[in-house]
Amino acid sequence: MASDDGVKPPTHELLSICKSLVAGGVAGGVSRTAVAPLERLKILLQVQNRQDIKYNGTIQGLKYIWKTEGFRGMFKGNGTNCARIVPNSAVKFFSYEQASLGILWLYQRQPGNEEAQLTPILRLGAGACAGIIAMSATYPMDMVRGRLTVQTEASPRQYRGIFHALSTVFREEGPRALYKGWLPSVIGVIPYVGLNFSVYESLKDWLIRSKPFGMKAQDSELSVTTRLACGAAAGTVGQTVAYPLDVIRRRMQMVGWKDAASVVAGEGKSKLEYTGMVDAFRKTVQHEGFGALYKGLVPNSVKVVPSIAIAFVTYEMVKDILGVEMRISD
């Protein structure tokens, strides 16, 4: 209950924060589980060596995983993925809301902008901030998730789970190894998450304001189908721009894993060795061509379009169910 001066008590604010975090976490878990097989195939395509091709496209890749590893193989690494994406998504959505408020407040302090509202550029900045915060907070989980996803029954090294992988990497490779590939991840998350939020929110605003495609004048809320379409468009734009950095990040995460050669490059091939992000880019393009930066793009596109759409819509629906007053558009 609000106090007489209109200021909400701390308990109300804390409850609202918790509800927002829960909504973001549920959105992340639901959206990633729905596309888990495609997520695993994307990573396998990203890191496989061209001299030892096992996965050759989306359909063939999924069939190969099913044939060699069965149903469990389709969802291998999803538990780790959800353990990472649930807090990541919770922090990301909440950070976006807070960053949007902060950036808009600063923008309105400028002369002549007192009545300004969020623009696509301001949303891009808020999304970038949210992405950096969420990525940095959960990066070690993403690092070990990549390794758990890549390993197969034939891999010499068998990580038994999230905490075994974290402790093994920490013990054998040092604490810095848990943040291998962090720089390209952060650089990539700026356009990726920034564009996701900016395109999604701007599209929704435009549809509500312009009323195209036969929308009625009194419509102030978009249907679930329309919001899914907005989320799909946002995901497509964001992942296309940021995808090469995701490939480099994934490859850098394999560096230092002494069994990576047998998993990624095939038996008898040289191990992955990169001195940094620029070196990883150079060697990837030099040895495999520019197209290698987009390995796994097709299954990733098939995955990202529904995943981002489901995440946005699930987030808003859960917040409605929980009775959270603030929406990401507000």
Short description:
The protein is mostly helical and 330 residues long. Helices cover 70% and strands 0% of the residues.
Describe this structure in words.
The chain has one domain: Mitochondrial carrier fold (Alpha/alpha barrel). It has 11 helices and no strands. The model is unreliable at about 265-270 (pLDDT under 50). The protein is globular, with a radius of gyration of 21 Å. The protein has about 325 residues and is an all-alpha fold.
Key features of this structure:
about 70% helix, Mitochondrial carrier fold, mainly alpha, about 325 residues
Secondary-structure blueprint of this entry?
Elements: H1 10-34, H2 36-47, H3 58-74, H4 78-108, H5 120-150, H6 162-173, H7 182-210, H8 224-254, H9 260-265, H10 277-288, H11 297-322
Helix pairs in contact: 1-4, 1-11, 2-3, 2-11, 4-5, 5-6, 5-7, 7-8, 8-10, 8-11
Main location: mitochondrion
Organism: Glycine max
Subcellular location: Mitochondrion inner membrane
> What is the terminal-to-terminal distance?
21 Å
Share of residues in strands = under 5%
What count of structural domains? 1
Helix content: over 70%
- Taking all residues together, what is the mean pLDDT? 82
Provide the CATH top-level class: Mainly Alpha
Protein name: Mitochondrial carrier protein
Keywords: Membrane, Mitochondrion, Mitochondrion inner membrane, Repeat, Transmembrane, Transmembrane helix, Transport
Main location: mitochondrion
Subcellular location: Mitochondrion inner membrane
